[in-house]
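Support request from a user on the community tier.

User writes: "When I paste my structure tokens into the form, the page sometimes reloads and wipes my input. The last time it worked, I copied everything first. Here is what I submitted, just in case something in the input itself triggers the reload:"
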């Protein structure tokens, strides 16, 4: 693996990876009074850093859309309006789809396998999981009977987002503990999509990285 001096690891790509790690693995452990603010803060950072991590694209446009999403996130956090909530979630989902596609393109077109390319690959994997978590959370928010929670667990309490992050990533990695399960046909179909996407992403990205690494070694 070659180090590209023009692309240091201390970059938006690295900070994006750090924010994703904090969101997925650390924030769910925080006390209830902190985790809502933490999720919104990290979402805001992820939007900005995602825009800055992209190459060969007009960053001012994607940056403006990221700022708009940040505003809607904090407004939805302060003002409980169903329409604003839905608009915020749809915007977040579309944004993450665009970012993941661009990160995969950057990985596919990179000439050498360096730390930035590896960071982009991990970022893309985690962003897909976050994107699915947003969709699952939205489904559970509007259709409480779509998922079965363990006995004694309140699906409507404020920890719902954290639970949906856990459920989504457990499904995404095909672990499937079964403590939270999809009940409705739509939720089950979406769970199948989540699981299949996780396996396909890993297979495709590993194939790309191995191919580039082998090509660089031969040259």
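"...and here is what came back when it finally went through:"
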């Amino acid at each position: 693996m070659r180090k590209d001096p023009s692309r240091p690891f201390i970059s938006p790509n690295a900070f994006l990876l750090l924010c994703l790690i904090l969101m997925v693995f650390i924030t769910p452990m925080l006390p209830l009074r902190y985790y809502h603010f933490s999720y919104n803060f990290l979402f805001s950072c992820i939007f900005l850093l995602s825009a800055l991590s992209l190459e060969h694209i007009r960053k001012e446009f994607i940056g403006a859309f990221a700022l708009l999403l940040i505003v809607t996130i904090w407004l939805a956090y302060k003002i409980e309006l169903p329409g604003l909530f839905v608009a915020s979630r749809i915007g977040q989902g579309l944004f993450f789809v665009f970012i993941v596609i661009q990160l995969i393109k950057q990985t596919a077109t990179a000439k050498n396998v360096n730390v930035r390319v590896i960071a982009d690959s991990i970022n893309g994997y985690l962003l897909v999981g976050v994107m699915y978590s947003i969709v699952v959370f939205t489904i559970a928010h509007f259709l409480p009977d779509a998922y079965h929670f363990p006995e004694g667990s309140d699906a409507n309490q404020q920890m719902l987002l954290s639970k949906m992050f856990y459920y989504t990533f457990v499904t995404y990695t095909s672990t499937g503990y079964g403590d939270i399960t999809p009940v409705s046909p739509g939720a089950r179909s979406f769970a199948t999509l989540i699981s299949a996407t996780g396996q396909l992403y890993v297979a495709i990205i590993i194939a790309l990285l191995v191919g580039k690494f082998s090509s660089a070694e031969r040259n």
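Agent notes: The reload is a front-end session timeout and is unrelated to the input. DSSP finds seven helices and two strands in the chain. The beta strands are 147-148, 181-182. Escalated to web team.
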